[in-house]
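Q: what sequence does this backbone want?
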C-alpha cells in the first residue's frame, strides 16, 4: 500500500469515527406522537349495521385515508426519528359477520398497511385494539372478553411488542438518559361494584413499572399510554395505583396519551412544587394534521402544538429542576 493510499484509508477511518461519535453524541431525538386512528379494513365482510354505525355515526369512514396522508407527508416534513402511536390504531380486534360468526384479522391488515412505509414506529394498545363488536338492540355492543387473544395477536404481529404489550426503550441524548415507558392500559370495562378507577394496569405490569421507575436514579421517564388521567383519577381518594406509582418518583416528567380525542395539557402534582405534565393529542381519525412533534434534548423536553412544529410546552430534563415552563 502506498503512502497516498494509507492517507486515504486513514482519512476514511477518521471520518467514520467522527460520524459514529456524532451519532452517539446526538443532541436531539424527535418523534411524532399520534393516537386514535381507528382504522378499519375489508368492511364488506362484517355485519352491515356495525359497519354503518362505525363509518357514519362515528364518522370514521376517512380513518384509513387520514393515516395514509399523515404517513406520506408529516414524517418527511418534520424529519422526526420515529413515530409513537398511543392506542386505538384499529377500531376493533374482531366483529360479527353477516352470518353471525366473529372475524378477526384487523391486526394483520393494519400490519400490511404499515408495511408500505419504511419508518420506525412504536405503539401502545388502546381499548379498541382489543374490542370485539356485536350488534344488538339497534346498536354496536363492544366487549373486551377476547383481550387475551387480541394481545397475543399484537405480540405475534409487531416487533415493538416482542417483549409483551408493555415495554421500555432507553435513549442517551448528550448527558441525559431518557427512558420511554410504554404501558398497556387497554382494558377498562369494569363493573361499578368493582370500584376500579381508570386508567388501570394489572398487578404484574404494576410491579414491572415500579422496577422500571427505580432502575436508575439518573434517567428521565416519559410515559406513553392510551387512557389518560383525569382530575378524578388523580384524587387521593381514588386510590389509583398507577397514579400513585408514577407520582412516587420525581423523574417522571411527561405522560403522552389519547383516548378522549382532544388536545389537552394538564399538570398533576408530585410533591412540593414538582409536577407531571400530561399531554393529549387529538385523534388522527379526525384529521391527518392531528399530531405533535416531541423533541428530546439534553436540557429539556419540547412538545409542539398540534399539527405544528412550534412548541406548546417545554419541560426541564434536569433532575434537580422540576419546573415546567409553558
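A:
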Amino acid at each position: 500500500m502506498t503512502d497516498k493510499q494509507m492517507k486515504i484509508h486513514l482519512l476514511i477511518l477518521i471520518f467514520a469515527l467522527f460520524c459514529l461519535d456524532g451519532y452517539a453524541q446526538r443532541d436531539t431525538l424527535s418523534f411524532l406522537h399520534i393516537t386514535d386512528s381507528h382504522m378499519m379494513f375489508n368492511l364488506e365482510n362484517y355485519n352491515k349495521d356495525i359497519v354503518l354505525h362505525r363509518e357514519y355515526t362515528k364518522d370514521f369512514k376517512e380513518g384509513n385515508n387520514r393515516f395514509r396522508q399523515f404517513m406520506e407527508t408529516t414524517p418527511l416534513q418534520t424529519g422526526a426519528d420515529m413515530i409513537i402511536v398511543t392506542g386505538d390504531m384499529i377500531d376493533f380486534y374482531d366483529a360479527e359477520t353477516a352470518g353471525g360468526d366473529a372475524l378477526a384479522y384487523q391486526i394483520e391488515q393494519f400490519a400490511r398497511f404499515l408495511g408500505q412505509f419504511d419508518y420506525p414506529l412504536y405503539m401502545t394498545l388502546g381499548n379498541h385494539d382489543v374490542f370485539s363488536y356485536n350488534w344488538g338492540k339497534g346498536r354496536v355492543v363492544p366487549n373486551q372478553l377476547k383481550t387475551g387473544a387480541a394481545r397475543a395477536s399484537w405480540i405475534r404481529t409487531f416487533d415493538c411488542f416482542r417483549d409483551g404489550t408493555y415495554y421500555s426503550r432507553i435513549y442517551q441524548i448528550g448527558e441525559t438518559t431518557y427512558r420511554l415507558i410504554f404501558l398497556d392500559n387497554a382494558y377498562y370495562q369494569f363493573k361499578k361494584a368493582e370500584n376500579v378507577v381508570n386508567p388501570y394496569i394489572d398487578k404484574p405490569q404494576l410491579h414491572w413499572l415500579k422496577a422500571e421507575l427505580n432502575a436508575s436514579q439518573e434517567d428521565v421517564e416519559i410515559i406513553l399510554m392510551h387512557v389518560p388521567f383525569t382530575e378524578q383519577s388523580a384524587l387521593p381518594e381514588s386510590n389509583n395505583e398507577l397514579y400513585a406509582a408514577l407520582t412516587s418518583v420525581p423523574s417522571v416528567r411527561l405522560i403522552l396519551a389519547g383516548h378522549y380525542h382532544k388536545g389537552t395539557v394538564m399538570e398533576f402534582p408530585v410533591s412540593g412544587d414538582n409536577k407531571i405534565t400530561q399531554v393529549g393529542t387529538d385523534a388522527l381519525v379526525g384529521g391527518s394534521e392531528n399530531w405533535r412533534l416531541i423533541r428530546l434534548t439534553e436540557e429539556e423536553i419540547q412538545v409542539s402544538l398540534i399539527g405544528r412544529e412550534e412548541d406548546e410546552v417545554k419541560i426541564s430534563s434536569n433532575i434537580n429542576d422540576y419546573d415546567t415552563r409553558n
